[in-house]
Design a protein that fits this description.
By secondary structure, the protein is mainly α. It has 15 helices and 2 strands. The protein has a two-stranded antiparallel sheet with strand order 1-2. The chain is globular.
Length: about 300
């Protein structure tokens, strides 16, 4: 287990560095073909929202799912970078005063604090759009069919039927706490949809068959649920310094969570169940899936 964990940690760190390097290059001052200009203040806000550290877990899941199924690593890196743009856009907007109203993200001032609200909105808009630029660009060495499938899958995961819709439900939950079924749906949309895409995206990049794609999608759904459950536990138990953001906000706002509904002990047992089911989905791949299995355990047991 020690060697496996060490390998997982090393690969997570290496992938994060590769994603950071690629996004640094893509969000440089050089103007791309058919762009007119890159306004310095907008580019600065975009870079502030993206190039601020983090584990880059979603791109890592893209890379490892791609590797498991024999896909092109460079394409996996680029799709992971596109997904990270979507994820970071959501954080930039989520931190705005009209939404969660946070001043700190990953231990640094949020974009609307470092710049202003208008620039934060435009930075988020631009990052979301740029994600699809990265997928469609000639440098992403995939077929037009694969790119179309990725664009569709990411749009469905990010939009009103996925993450953005989940954010809308989350805001509504401040006024009226949902029941258990509503909480599960909210979390599957707000958090789980992008994680599901990360895993299914690897199958698309590898041009895998329907069964592999189904398994990767289901694996992503399980670990997406685990991620949010672990997040709710951390919001209850971790301190702000460890998290790099404010904690205890869900309880303060009266938001319903599964932890609040069932308690910490139940949540910890549910995490064990989700990880076991996620690992079971990987059984057909044998030892080749060890890193993804470790990723599931990491998600459930993380401390920040």
């Amino acid at each position: 287990m020690k060697d496996e964990t060490s390998s997982f940690s090393a690969r997570l760190k290496a992938n994060a560095a590769a994603v950071e390097a690629l996004l640094t290059k893509l969000l440089g001052p050089a103007v791309f073909a058919d762009e007119i200009a890159r306004p310095e203040n907008l580019l600065g806000a975009m870079r502030h929202g993206v190039l601020n550290g983090g584990k880059r877990l979603r791109p890592f899941l893209v890379a490892e799912s791609t590797a498991l199924l024999g896909g092109d690593a460079e394409a996996g890196l680029r799709i992971g970078a596109a997904l990270e743009c979507v994820h970071c856009y959501s954080l930039v907007h989520d931190d705005l005063p009209a939404m969660d109203d946070d001043d700190v993200r990953r231990g640094k001032p949020t974009v609307h604090i470092a710049f202003d609200e208008a620039m934060a909105i435009l930075a988020g808009d631009s990052l979301l759009t740029f994600a699809f630029d990265i997928i469609a660009a000639p440098e992403t060495a995939l077929s037009d069919r694969q790119k179309t499938e990725l664009v569709l899958a990411l749009a469905r995961a990010a939009g009103h039927g996925g993450m953005a819709g989940g954010q809308a439900l989350d805001l509504a939950a401040e006024r009226q706490a949902p029941d258990e079924e509503g909480i599960v749906m909210l979390q599957a949309m707000k958090t789980g949809a992008l994680i599901r895409f990360a895993c299914e995206g690897g199958a698309i990049i590898a041009d895998a068959g329907a069964e592999d794609r189904r398994r990767m999608r289901a694996f992503g759904e399980k670990i997406g649920l685990a991620f949010q459950l672990a997040d709710d536990l951390l919001d209850l138990t971790a301190d702000a310094e460890a998290m790099g953001k404010a904690t205890g906000k869900d309880a303060a706002r009266g938001k319903g969570t599964l932890v609040a509904l069932h308690g910490q002990g139940w949540a910890e047992r549910e995490l064990e169940r989700l990880v076991k089911e996620a690992e079971g989905l990987l059984d057909p791949y044998g030892a080749r899936s060890a890193i993804l299995a470790e990723a599931a355990r990491f998600i459930a047991n993380r401390r920040s």
